[in-house]
Amino acid sequence: MTLRILLADGQTLVRDGVRALLAGDPQLEIAGVAGDGLEMLRLARRLAFDIAVVEPAMSGMNGIEATRRLLARTPEARVLCLAHAGSHSAVKEAFDAGARGYVLKRDPVEVLLAALRGVAGGRMVLSPGLEAVFIDAYRNRDAALGPSPLTGREREITQLYAEGWSTRQIAARLHISEKTVATHREHVFAKLGVAGIAGLTRYALREGISRLEEAGADGAHGAG
Question: Which of 80, 78, 21 is nearest to 53 (CA)?
Answer without folding.
Answer: 80
